[in-house]
Amino acid sequence: MPESASRPELSRRRLLSGAAAIPATAVVAAAVSRTGTAAAATAAAATPVTGTMLLTWLGHSCFRLEKDGFVAIIDPGIVAPANALDDADAVLITHQHADHFLPSLIAGRLKTRPGLPIWTNKDVAALLDGSGATVHVIGPGDAFTVGGIKVHGHGEWHAPIHPDVTRVRNTGFLFEDRIFHPGDAYTDPHAPVNLLFVPEFGLFTKFGYAIDFIRQVKPKQASPVHDTGLDAIGLAGADGFLVQDKTPPFAPGTGSPFTRLPKGTPVSV
Length: 269
What we know:
The chain is α/β, with parallel strands linked by helices. It has one domain (12-268): Ribonuclease Z/Hydroxyacylglutathione hydrolase-like (Metallo-beta-lactamase, Chain A, 4-Layer Sandwich). Helices cover 15% and strands 23% of the residues. The protein is built from 5 helices and 15 strands. It has helices at residues 12-15, 103-112, 122-127, 207-217, 232-241; strands spanning 41-42, 53-59, 62-67, 70-74, 90-93, 117-120, 134-137, 143-146, 149-154, 172-175, 179-181, 195-199, 221-225, 259-260, 267-268. It has a 7-stranded mixed sheet. A 6-stranded mixed sheet has the order 8-9-10-11-12-13, covered by helices on one side. Strands 1-14 form a two-stranded parallel sheet. It is globular and about 55 Å long. The relative contact order is 0.21.
């Protein structure tokens, strides 16, 4: 069930709650894991096949999805490449924080793509009022199609940062019943997931929650996102803690292969 809009609870159970969705049916072709090691594996690039999707991690929580020539960009924020939207046919935004939503990037694309379609929740939609974009307001439980890509919305609120910090709306996206981008939340889509993106470093993150998030969703593959601010040592330590198998003295094991996608390299999903 979606979290209460009037008084969102802060319990771990509520952090991992979400609406039901259609079960996933396909296997992530690029999944590669190095089980039981302290370093995450790197996924290999795949050759595009008609009707399949190419996914490119552009850094932090920004992704590019391409299917049959249609390009959708998810969460283009302040740490996304400056050219992230150059050929975007559509944009999806999980929430309004600047590392996920940069109005100047949207404005730049609107100059060359008037009426750019954007799917997002009502809070972000309000910020886009008058921008010239064609805004589609969506929320938890909604199902829609973006350029032939099936999407389901999950979750309603950003994970808590602090009781004194106002929570914003956050909508996670389940793509093609198999790839889940939760935004800044630990929402369980209650559906089989082939590829789960796991926030790794931020004001709201906690590694204990990340472990439970992976264990509860039980994806065929988990991959880290939201990692800006970690240096090479920090990335290795974070990735090493979230590995599949229990690895003394600290990694408790998640039960799912953990793979860092290569930044800027398309993989077939």
